Amino acid sequence: MTNRTTQATPPFLSLEKVSKIYQRGPNRVVALRTFSLALPAAQFTAVVGRSGSGKSTLLHLLAALDHPTEGEITVGPWRLSAFDRREQARYRREMVGMIFQQFNLIPSMTALANVELPLVLAGVAPAVRQARAAECLERVELSHRLDHRPTELSGGEQQRVAIARALALDPPLLLADEPTGNLDSVTGKQIVALLARLQREQGKSIIVVTHSLEEVAPVATRVVELHDGSLLRTDEKGPRGATESTG
Ligand code: ADP
Ligand code: MG
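That is the input. Now the predicted structure with magnesium ion docked in place:
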């Protein structure tokens, strides 16, 4: 019954000895220190660690919003460290969907228009992009809210619009920075379940930064724990939330 291959496939995503140092005047902050990690495709990875441990920095580097100070990052065929501006823009358009704690929707625009926006920026024709945006909203079960503006939506609904927007260009990698941080725990669980479904049904690679390992433990296929910019541990499968302990 098992369908596992023992063949070594190259990782979908890898960081090799990546460091990120923020230098502000005399202040030097080492946000990531010689950090290495390799992930196969289609994982649901939870990134946990205290505030200030480097979680957001890690996502920013993977989104090519910022360059590492040292080291190599590869995602699929892309070598992020070698990017010029054009490649960086193409990578972000083709490979990455981002989801934020604050949803970051445009308040004056309807749900449909918010989801259409990345398609507008990518130059997709109006008829095509409307259909595509509606389809993405259907995938997050919001077909009944196409014409609503963010203020007319609950927090959970706003986050689902943001997820639909992240799906608009069908990227293989979804990066979510504390996507449940502004939601109550029941709604947060629904958002986590939605992300897990996207990973299972569509083979997306999902990396979720969270404060609450408990919230993602049931669905995460991998847990990466950061401490002070270093990798404290990475568990493959079997995350069992707070019960796992070395004590
Ligand atoms: P986390 O998301 O785990 O809370 P961050 O990645 O945001 O951690 O931050 C890691 C460290 O880097 C923190 O000490 C933070 O203050 C610092 N840091 C983050 N972004 C910047 C920046 N743009 N300039 C200077 N320091 C930063
Ligand atoms: Mg953060």
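Residues 22, 24, 29, 31, 49, 51-57 surround adenosine-5'-diphosphate (ligand 1) (CB under 6 Å).
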